[in-house]
Amino acid sequence: MSDGDFERVLGLGDDALIAAQRLGEWCSRAPEMEEDIALANIALDQLGVARMLLTYAGELEGRGRDEDDLAFLRDDREFRNVQLVELDNGDFAVTMAKLLFLSVYQHLLYDALASGIDPRLAGIAGKARKESAYHVDHSALWAVRLGDGTAQSHARMQAAVDAVWPYTHELFEGQAAPLRGQWLVHVDKVLAEATLTRPADGWAPGGGRRGVHTEALSRLLADMQVLHRAHPGATW
What is the pLDDT of residues 92-151, one digit of tens each? Predict the structure, then answer.
């Protein structure tokens, strides 16, 4: 295995880990009780995949770092997640836009990896794609519910799609580039049903895979890592 394999698996693990942290922030704050539970479950799905991927990344690296070391003892410049997942939750519409775009990408990616040549990654992806299918359905239902709802909910959902869209381009850098066509087909179908307009392509921030991140990631890591850093080596 090469350094490139480590970086790729690390990036996928970081995507799932940071997405889990952001979704977990909705616990007790979602617009309805059922959604509170749903987002917590999706966060746990993402966390489960992150644990498997970060464990594998640590083994590929060969420096003795485990999933906890990689999650809690790296600074922001060492993370390889796309910037999309680290963005602040914003209002509920922003979270649903982020989840829709991410989950469609993850489902397509895991489906491809499940039949790939790396048996370890294929096994992880085979489990993850079942959960990601639910994430796609859940976020799509909310996008339609908000987009094709009241004038206010439509405006807020459209504003969310517009704000998040530039960050989707980074998902398809490198080996994931061939997936963008399939991703657009699915996303366009949801947007059409939701009476939402797909934004024009233009400004496309990036660099997350190289450790270039927004200030939002630093704030997120400060919350996520504080206990582990304050009590290194502590066990329950």
Answer: 999 999 999 999 999 999 999 999 999 999 999 999 999 999 999 999 999 999 999 999
Residue position matching structure tokens 């775009």: 101
Architecture label for domain 3-199+213-230: Up-down Bundle (1.20)
How high is the pLDDT of residue 4? Answer: 85
Domain spans, the chain:
3-199+213-230
* pTM of the complete model: 0.96
The label of the residue with tokens 């370890």 reads 120
Instruction: Give the integer Cα–Cα distance in Å for 193 and 183.
Output: 16
- Residue the block writes with tokens 């693990």: 13
Which amino acid appears at position 114 of this protein? A
Mean pLDDT, the chain, integer: 96
Q: Is 28 left (phi over 0), alpha (psi -120 to 50) or beta?
A: left
Q: Which among 133, 140, 146, 134 has a CA at the least distance from the CA of 31? A: 146
For residues 57-76, one letter each, b for 16 or more C-beta atoms within 10 angstroms of the residue's C-beta and e for the rest, the string is bbbbbeeebebeebbeebeb
